[in-house]
Amino acid sequence: MDTLQDLLFLYQEHPTLRTLTALSKDNSILHIQTDGLYGSSQSLILANLFLQTRHSLLILSDSVDDAIYLDNDLTLLLGEDKVCFFPSPYRIRQRKQDTDTAYEIERTTTLNHLTSQRQTPCIVVSYPEALIPGIITKQQFQDEVLALHTGQSISIEQLSTRLFNSGWEKVDFVYEPGQFSIRGGIVDIFSFSSENPYRIDFFGDEIDSIRIFDIESQLSKEKVSDIEIIPNIQEQPSAEQTHSLFDYLPDNTIIVSNDFSLLRHKFLSASSGSETNGLHRI
């Protein structure tokens, strides 16, 4: 037994997994409480459940630390394309002045996967505090996504106007998400759905090439043919337009928690007793 895949294979015969798989395939259960499963055994059971049912899973851990641990475990077992992390956008509770850019990128990337036309089942790992801040509707999110590809006919002026209207900041050199710069026939854009910015070369009013580049060295890392540009969605909604992660999930999503009673208590505490943001789903 030399690899993680060997462990994953061995757990296919676990009696708990067989029961859960049988019930999940015909939608007999959409909630699973995993008390009694600890450490990597939880990851192995849930990874196999996902592979055998092909249902999306929303796993709600007790804390951010538990969620990060589980996300890393599942990513090692299944790969980055099948596991999404949905953290709180804030470093300290819900204080908006303490936003964490890396976490904002993670949130945006997860929502983009859930709204993509190429959407495939995935595992979303989160925790109570991350689901309290409201987000824009699924349709609003889709409207904010700007798809660009090589050979596309669009002028730099048209692109700049679209970015301005979506709240992007024009700077001399991009260094954080939400910024763009224009130098001659080159447009640099740092999307909230990417860890690195994009460099778009124009030939007249047509996109000639798109590259991912490194901020420090300014050197290209990878050439790509198409990208999706997404602004800071946390600054898009008004108070009347906020929705929750639950509104983005497929109807047959299986919700997983160690303790749903504790989870509900944490939701109510974090949201000041208001049953909002999809609490009825758990």
Brief summary:
This protein is an alpha/beta fold and 282 residues long. Helix content is 32%, strand content 20%.
Give the CATH superfamily of the largest domain.
Answer: P-loop containing nucleotide triphosphate hydrolases
Average the pLDDT over all residues and give the rounded result. Answer: 85
Shape: elongated
Helix/strand-derived class? alpha/beta
Q: Record the strand order, biggest sheet.
A: 6-7-8-9-10-11
Rg from C-alpha positions? 21 Å
User: What summary fits the major beta sheet?
Assistant: 6 strands, mixed
How many distinct domains?
A: 2
Quote the distance from N terminus to C terminus.
Answer: 38 Å
Layout of secondary structure:
Blueprint: H1 4-10, H2 15-25, E1 31-33, H3 40-53, E2 57-60, H4 64-78, E3 83-85, H5 101-115, E4 123-126, H6 138-144, E5 146-149, H7 156-165, E6 169-170, E7 179-183, E8 186-190, E9 198-203, E10 206-213, E11 220-224, E12 226-229, E13 254-257, H8 260-270
Parallel strand pairs: 1-13, 2-4, 2-13, 3-4, 6-7
Antiparallel strand pairs: 5-12, 7-8, 8-9, 9-10, 10-11
Helix pairs in contact: 2-3, 3-4
